[in-house]
Amino acid sequence: MAEKDALKVLESTLAGRGIDIKAVKEALKGQAIETPSWAYANSGTRFHTFGQAGAARNILEKLEDASCVHKLTGVCPTVAVHVLWDFVDKTVAEAKACAESLGVKIGAINPTLFEQSEYKFGSIGSPDARARQKALDHLLYSVDIMRECDSKFLSIWLADGTNYPGQDDLRQRKHRVAENLQKVHGALDDDMQMLVEYKFFEPAFYSTDIGDWGMAYLFCKKCGPKAKVLVDLGHHPLGTNIEQIVALLIDEDMLGGFHFNSKKYADDDLTVASVQPYEFFLIFNELVAAAGGGSAYDVPYMIDQSHNLKGKIEAMIQSVMNIQETYAKALCLDRKALAAAQQKMDIIAAESVMKDAFFTDVRPLLGAVREEMGLAPDPLAAYRESGYQGKIEKSRS
Ligand code: AFD
Ligand code: MN
Ligand code: MN
Prior knowledge:
Layout: H1 3-16, H2 21-29, E1 33-36, H3 59-73, E2 78-82, H4 83-86, H5 92-101, E3 105-110, H6 129-149, E4 153-157, E5 161-162, H7 170-187, E6 193-197, E7 207-208, H8 213-223, E8 227-232, H9 242-251, E9 255-260, H10 277-290, E10 301-303, H11 312-331, H12 335-343, H13 347-358, H14 363-372, H15 379-386, H16 388-395
Parallel strand pairs: 1-2, 1-10, 2-3, 4-6, 6-8, 8-9, 9-10
Antiparallel strand pairs: 5-7
Helix pairs in contact: 1-14, 2-14, 3-11, 6-7, 7-8, 9-10, 10-11, 11-15, 12-13
């Protein structure tokens, strides 16, 4: 069926659900997805890093690639940075100016608290006071960088934990982490937030100091109103109901934002929605429901992936398209029919409403949205035709 006809059919389907396609288009145009600087550089596993031709080698090249993704998708205006990886060959001011000259802005500031030998037994949770001080200094320096970049989000992930029973006092570790996070919270300006990320395991294998959403929530509450929970989709035990955690955190006004990726087994950092597309839809359903059905709950939507095998920029564009499609599907859900089915406790009817939305083919809609934004309807095809990959493989050899 031609795209135009498909769009017409979709428009009447949505009208039948009481949904105005124009409103859906506006919501999609207003979406903002942050890409991570580190996903444009070479990455690997603890077994090997398979270098890629053209991979970004410094902050300028990372920002160039992020700018390319933004130009093709129209919804990626900000770039998350990692303090020790991105402010090396350029000062903060230079990197900020670079970003803006390329039509993007620096987004969340990620302190780097896990790759220096002092952190062998942890950063702010370490039993070694020198390590704790070094980590706290780095966190406070990261807040200074936020000011310089006009960034509103400090995205804190601690690799802290222990590998063996008895290695350290688990309650003392909790006190150390809380005490130092509170100091960071005290350094934030009123319009800043610290997003406390949790992770089930890795690199610590016996206990992780911020290991689940409850611990992150607890530490945020001990810090104050500028601390919220960051949900990384790859950071849960298998079988966790992530959409339920998202719903609960929203309801407590404690959801700080997302790191989008996909996993099959652990923190695989795979392309978001590549493994569990329905789970990702159910998460977006909570975000759209919480915003009343016509938009998404207002938190930073950040990608956190490492593309070890796929082409880095292609994988990033694919990830952005997956997020857009999933958001569009959640916007196409007939919320009145769902509420009515729930009211009647008609499980089958409620499920069919969910499935109708999930199986709605929103690609013609997104093609039209992109054309209305002055973009190619298929950003991945546009990237492949652009010659950008050949250019960077040549210039970065
Ligand atoms: C790793 C960690 C965590 C963190 C990210 C960026 O598991 O997700 O947010 O690196 O530092 O993926
Ligand atoms: Mn993450
Ligand atoms: Mn991770």
